[in-house]
């Protein structure tokens, strides 16, 4: 398994994706996603072949690591990047939800999948370049208008970070909740 060795203490390549774009306290990914690797096959099975338990496996594994590492600091809430309701209905589950739930459980944080909404039903971004990903994501997320809560430190969780456009859009929306800090974790990152 191509582990990244990212932690929440040292600067890494995922941190650098967001420099100058959005105020992210710390970012990290669990594994590297390559075009022809095991991670691609696992995440493809997770998203498209009804293998939701893969997210739980990754969450248990990386959650145990985070519990020991302590570099993340106190996280108040873990929020998965949401799916559009139509895509959620079609797939039957959010591919990042179980991973995020297991991370929240391991670090003793609250899990909330009701605070952030995906309002635009965009097609998969896997074949799009950096500019198209950014354009498709920039207005795709909003805070649930029923959410009148404030948190200290939010951990925003996604499956794969390529350009960071999705995370940037989600973080901009979450800033309306006035969290003290936003950190980012993904299952995988494209090197």
TrEMBL record:
Q: What GO annotations for molecular function exist for this entry?
A: glycosyltransferase activity
Alphabetical list of InterPro entries matching this protein: ComF/GntX_DNA_util-trans, PRTase-like, PRTase_dom
Membrane-spanning residues where?
none
The chain's coiled-coil residues are none
Its keywords, alphabetically, are:
Glycosyltransferase, Transferase
Q: Which SUPFAM superfamilies match?
A: PRTase-like (SSF53271)
What domain of life does the UniProt record list for this protein's source? Bacteria
Family, per entry: Belongs to the ComF/GntX family.
What is the name of the protein in this document?
A: Amidophosphoribosyltransferase
């Amino acid at each position: 398994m191509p582990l990244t060795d990212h932690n929440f203490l040292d600067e890494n390549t995922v941190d650098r994706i967001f420099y100058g774009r959005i105020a992210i306290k710390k970012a990290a990914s669990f594994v590297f996603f390559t075009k022809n690797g095991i991670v691609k096959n696992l995440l493809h099975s997770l998203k498209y072949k009804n293998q939701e338990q893969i997210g739980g496996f990754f969450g248990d594994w990386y959650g145990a690591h985070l519990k020991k590492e302590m570099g993340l600091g106190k996280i108040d809430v873990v929020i998965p990047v949401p799916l559009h309701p139509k895509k959620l209905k079609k797939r039957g589950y959010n591919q990042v939800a179980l991973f995020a739930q297991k991370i929240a459980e391991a670090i003793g944080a609250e899990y909330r999948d009701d605070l952030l909404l995906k309002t635009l039903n965009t097609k998969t971004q896997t074949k799009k370049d950096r500019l198209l990903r950014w354009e498709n994501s920039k207005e795709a997320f909003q805070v649930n208008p029923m959410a009148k809560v404030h948190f200290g430190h939010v951990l925003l969780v996604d499956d794969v970070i390529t350009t960071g456009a999705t995370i940037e859009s989600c973080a901009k929306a979450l800033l309306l909740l006035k969290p003290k800090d936003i950190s980012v974790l993904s299952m995988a990152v494209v090197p």
